[in-house]
Amino acid sequence: MKLSVIIPAYNAAATLGEALQSVEQQHVQPFEVVVVNDGSTDGTAKVIQSFMDRLPLVCVNQENAGLGAARNTGMRASKGDAWVFLDADDEWGSNKLAQGKDYLTRFPKVQWFYTPIFEWSPGTEGAGMRMRACPKIHSVEDFLAFNPIVPSTVIMRSDTSFTWEEDRDMQEDVGAYLVLFAQGIMPMKIPHCTTKYRLDFGMTADAEGHVNKVMRAVIKARKLGHIDDQQVALYEVRKAYELARTYKKRGDENGQKKWKKEALRKAKATRVPTNLLWRLRWLI
């Protein structure tokens, strides 16, 4: 089983070295590490060069085209049996690839997998780490209500018909997953938490802008017939909840109250799983 690690990198000099070091420390080594330098203007190229003798690293340079396009470029350049995605500002635990290889081998009919994550904020190592809730996905509604799939956890067989969204006005992952769901290609959860996901950095620093891009991708999925109006409404509740949770973590009481109120208002207009309603009412 040849594992191709795919890392898109745009002006990622501050974090890319840590991401690549986490790949270097894997108990099971990858077949290749494809880093796509997406038109960086900082020291990203120097960081990539410093790992050329340490990893089976392939560097693909392109003009800046965005995160989705960079991941797609990496997939096209890869030669392995499976893609294992890692963003340049995230890190893996040392058993990530071992767990991935194990599940790919044990479940040959499953096309793709995901894992839980540890959320952490820069400068709060240890005390700032927490595991995000990550339920199993049995339906599109499970995904929309609990939003558990972070790209840096995804492992996917390279014969899967899959592309990330390249329109930079939309979030690159959610619509792409919904295409697979619409085809009945459901993922399997690997229960081991093997990814450290950096909060309030990159896209997540602008929480409301991030949610707007996500919702544009969801609206596109509705227009394509991948989901219906009720499912869109459910995801609106979920994203309002996430904004309330984000502002709570930041200590912004006004932002927290605003988005909690909005989430509860939206929840009255659609069917929301009890689990999510409970979180809305008591956890934020």
Describe the structure.
The chain is of the alpha/beta class and 284 residues long. It folds into two domains: 3-215, Spore Coat Polysaccharide Biosynthesis Protein SpsA, Chain A (Alpha-Beta Complex); 228-279. It is 42% helix and 15% strand. It contains ten helices and eleven strands. The chain has helices spanning 16-24, 44-50, 67-77, 96-106, 140-146, 174-182, 207-223, 229-250, 253-267, 274-283, and strands at residues 3-9, 32-38, 57-62, 82-85, 91-92, 112-114, 117-120, 130-131, 155-157, 188-189, 195-198. Helix 2 links the parallel strand 2 (32-38) and strand 3 (57-62). Helix 7 (207-223) runs antiparallel to helix 8. The model has no long low-confidence stretch (mean pLDDT 93).
Helix content: 40-55%
> What count of helical segments does DSSP give?
10
What is the CATH-assigned architecture of the largest domain? Alpha-Beta Complex
- CATH class category of the largest domain: Alpha Beta
Which secondary-structure class do the elements indicate? alpha/beta
Average the pLDDT over all residues and give the rounded result. 93
Number of strands: 11
Q: Low-confidence runs (pLDDT<50, min 5 residues)?
A: none
Strand order of the largest sheet: 3-2-1-4-9-6-10
Q: Any idea what the CATH superfamily of the largest domain is called?
A: Spore Coat Polysaccharide Biosynthesis Protein SpsA, Chain A
What is the overall silhouette?
globular
Distance between the termini: 43 Å
Roughly what fraction of the amino acids lie in strands? 15-25%
* The number of domains: 2
> CATH fold name of the largest domain, please?
Spore Coat Polysaccharide Biosynthesis Protein SpsA, Chain A
